[in-house]
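Before going further, learn to read the protein records used in this course. Taken together, the tokens spell out the fold as the letters spell out the chain. A record is reproduced here so that you can trace the correspondence yourselves:

***
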Amino acid sequence: MPQELLVSVANNETRVGLLEKGLLQEVYLERSGGESTVGNIYKGKVVRILPGMQSAFVDIGQNRAAFMHISDMMKGRGAFEDRQEFQSADILELLYEGQELMVQVTKEPIDNKGARITTNLSIASRFLVYLPGTQHIGISQKIDIEAERHRLNEIVDEVSKAGEGFVIRTAAEGVGEAEIIDDAGFLRTRWKIIQADAGMGECPRLIYEDLPLPLRVMRDIISSETDSILVDDKPTMDIIRRFLADFIPEKLSCLRFCDQDVVLFDRYQIDDQIEAALNRQIALKSGGYLIIDQTEAMTTIDVNTGGFVGGKDLEDTIYRTNMEASAAIPRQLRLRNLGGIIIIDFIDMIDEEHKRQVLRVLEKGIAADRVKCNLTQISELGLVEMTRKRTYSSLLKKLCEPCEVCDGRGFIKSLDTVCFDIFKDLKRKSEQLEGKQCLIMASQAVIDHLLDEQVDAIRSLCKAINVTLSYQVEPGYLQEQFDIVTAVSESG
């Protein structure tokens, strides 16, 4: 499917959008001072070891120490292949506090957690990923023609040396032997420079920095289907042009500068699509809808028929809604960059063939995802459990912060509940307040509710505890806020 890349740079923010048929599929953004550290290699120092968790914290010079589990230290992809051997391994035999070591960021910091790191270093190029210290050759599962897999494996096996490994990337499909060999040589040279740099200087410090966002996208996302690359910033355009000339010259003809009066993202209604991706509810064309909720533990996607009643019968209506949902969900996963555990709650279906067809549509959509996904069969309850590798923060986490009113819960106490909280507080303090004049300070909505819907209740309570009340609206108070203070007499 033809793809377009839009690169927009303005006001210390870089945004990249991947479009298919004019529809936004993926979006990447970085702001000055908040650049991603994923892929960066650091010389770090072990500051704390947690034997009970088989984990360690490593200072890499960031605000928070980075986290590393013993599984992130499996030297070479073949180590600890035996589960019993892995379970018997002891992190205290591998690390000590104060130890200096080279580590690479695999997941950027999320919420209050530091970055996730590994000692299994890797360097990516256009066609290969270089794995120093391991004798392993892997190949992308998306290259599915057996003859091509065999050809590429033979080339890389021939070029690899002792103590190094490679992963053959999807972009290598159909590429000539000379280009693969050049790529391997380029990565090998870069690794030697990194090694030399690691032996010098202080600790902690950055040793190798991955490419900036626009070039990372060129390296990792451009494919044979990319037919347009639009850029609205001249300096960024020049950087991309040089990169393409050096590494992907066949795509230079796709590169165009967009200097029109209309902002590039506005021209393609990208901001509207991003705004929609921040909503919990996504409408389906039939009238059904999805509800997507992100929590610390997992993301849940609930499928609902909504106003759709167009099927021949109930089972047909449910089937058609689920089919539409299974086609829409893969795009939402990519666009929102949802990772970790994901639970999809399809509407219950009786027909087993309907279940298989819904799952096939979901699997087909997920197959186009560059991020590794695993999913299960539909359970008796209509649930599909899946995982999607989490490397970067979700779109919601990048663009939003917890609501100061509800503290990220998504709900605030109702007016009735706040009023009853006031009643309980008055009862709790009844001995101190008896016979006194008190002032209730709260928001306009709460005061109005007290003097309207709850007026009988407040009068009855005042009589029971012998308190006289007055009220004061505080414009700055949130709905859940209130104070009860004893009024000071003028003569006092």
Observations:
- Confidence is low (pLDDT under 50) at residues 76-83.
- The chain has four domains: 3-35+211-271, 122-205, 280-399, 415-486.
- The chain is about 30% helix and 25% strand.
